[in-house]
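so my prof wants the structure for this chain in the tokens format not the other one, which i didnt know existed until like an hour ago. anyway here's the sequence
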Amino acid sequence: MPLSLRRGTVTAIVERHAELVRLEVDNTPCIAYPRVTGAVEVGDDVIVNVQARELGLGSGGFDVLHVNLTRGLDLDVEPGAHVMTLPYTSLQQAVRHGEEDAVVESLDGTPVVCCSLHSQVVPACAALSGVEVAYVQVGGGALPVSLSDAVRELRARRLLAFTVAAAPCVDADVQAVNVYSALGCAAATGADAIVCAIGPGIVGTGTSLGHGGLAAAQAVNAAAALGGRPVLAPRISRGDARPRHRGLSHHTQAVLRACLAEPLVPDGRDPPGWRDACAGLPLSHMGRGPDDDPQFFAAAFAAGQVARSLLS
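here's what i got, hopefully its the right format
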């Protein structure tokens, strides 16, 4: 299916961050990434990608600004940048990569919590409160790190200090070529622990291997290869109506089969105090919160606790 592009006019700015703008184009919800497409204001003449919304995708109920014809042309290239992100696509752009500045080749025992879903990141980071945590995003869900409201909130609460986008992911504090160098960039910041996950949403086909969660296996293997201590956050649920995700999800089972290294995995018991530690944080998975599916969030918190125990 080709791109579904429409031309329109920005009719409202709903929410503005340096890295993400929620807006309306002809009164229809849309998002824009100003570090990619430039600034956006009411009245701008824009082209948006409408395909996800028109297909009725659950995680794509909005359009995405593709180009701003009013103020997004002839933008300056980042100084000193020459390595492309999203190469050979219409959105390729030169971005300075972390490997060009500071990267270490050994994690030297740093614990790495590997998550197969973005909604596991918040409870995992909550368990690491008081510890310097870096976040690495890998492909399998949304590619822009800047889309994540959870990451923004974690940073505001000082539960997350630094972000790295492992290609094909983009738009973080630092860009990296792959998950190996991304972990090395994260370790170079002096992080005590690293949380690695896919972005919001997940690519899924309902099959054992055709889903974005398998990126967690790649993170486990990379962490182990670089001398880190991989911890796998298991996907556990009693609130999911789909049999393949009840109990230990088939996603986690597939990840474990694909791991060439053996990660540490929580024992499945609910860790005491996880609700208090997560109080006030944005806990949401497939529209369910901690009261609807407590085992899901407790399991991710437990993975963070295991990582924390490796620091003592």
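also thought this was worth mentioning. The radius of gyration is 19 Å.
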